[in-house]
Specification:
Helix content of chain B: under 10%
Radius of gyration of chain B: 13 Å
Shape of chain B: globular
Number of helices of chain B: 0
Structural class of chain B: mainly beta
Strand content of chain B: over 45%
Oligomer: heterodimer
Largest sheet of chain B: 6 strands, mixed
Distance between the termini of chain A: 36 Å
Largest sheet of chain A: 7 strands, mixed
Order of helices and strands of chain A: EEEEEEEEEEE
Chain lengths: 110, 111
């Protein structure tokens, strides 16, 4: 069965650079969620989209933005990267309630 | 203030033993409560999801309880295995899309 796809799987950036993470939900899923998990931390909810509209907003920094496209894939744009942005970024998709998580993108900011 | 607290923060048990993890929440409005298991470096995996009217739900060796009056939930793990070593996260949904994560319990099962 198809799962949530995230790309890239690993990313190395320098401070003040920008990064774009992509998430391709399970086919027919209409909701996408983004989470950030720092080293040794629990995942923190960033933002979610339902039918291409932002549905909820968590602890997403102002330097980050996200959107969901017509094909339901989503992109998380991160600008002015800081060392503290180094983390594992998970995307999840759902149709009704259960969220299915992707493998994550590991971002390292040097 | 919406809040989800878990205890203990960390727990070490011997293989084959049982253990119980606690989750207390102050979330309104309450939609449902989920328990997730998260292995290091992996995404969380849903174990159970419980609505207001459900008291107990089992998933193999995992049994979750929910007391909506006292706003408490527990996750009981029976006959623990080495592969149960992970973080266990309690997540309460408020409304449709608002997820409040608990602080997590790190469980270590020793041989």
């Amino acid at each position: 069965a198809a799962g949530v796809i995230q790309s890239p799987r690993h990313l190395i950036k320098e401070k003040r650079e920008t990064a774009t993470l992509k998430c391709y939900p399970i086919p027919r899923h209409d909701t996408v969620y983004w989470y950030q998990q720092g080293p040794g931390q629990d995942p923190q909810f960033l933002i979610s989209f339902y039918e291409k509209m932002q549905s909820d907003k968590g602890s997403i920094p102002d330097r980050f933005s996200a959107q969901q496209f017509s094909d339901y894939h989503s992109e998380l744009n991160m600008s002015s990267l800081e060392l503290g942005d180094s983390a594992l970024y998970f995307c999840a998709s759902s149709l009704v309630e259960t969220q299915y998580f992707g493998p994550g993108t590991r971002l390292l900011v040097l | 203030k919406n809040q989800v607290e878990q205890s203990p923060q960390s727990l070490i048990i011997l293989e084959g033993k049982n253990c119980t993890l606690q989750c207390n929440y102050t979330v309104s409005p309450f939609s449902n409560l989920r328990w997730y298991k998260q292995d290091t470096g992996r995404g969380p995996v849903s174990l159970t999801i419980m609505t207001f009217s459900e008291n107990t739900k089992s998933n193999g060796r995992y049994t979750a309880t929910l007391d909506a009056d006292t706003k408490q939930s527990s996750l009981h793990i029976t006959a623990s295995q080495l592969s149960d070593s992970a973080s266990y996260i309690c997540v309460v949904t408020s409304g449709t899309y608002k997820y409040i994560f608990g602080t997590g319990t790190r469980l270590k099962v020793l041989a």
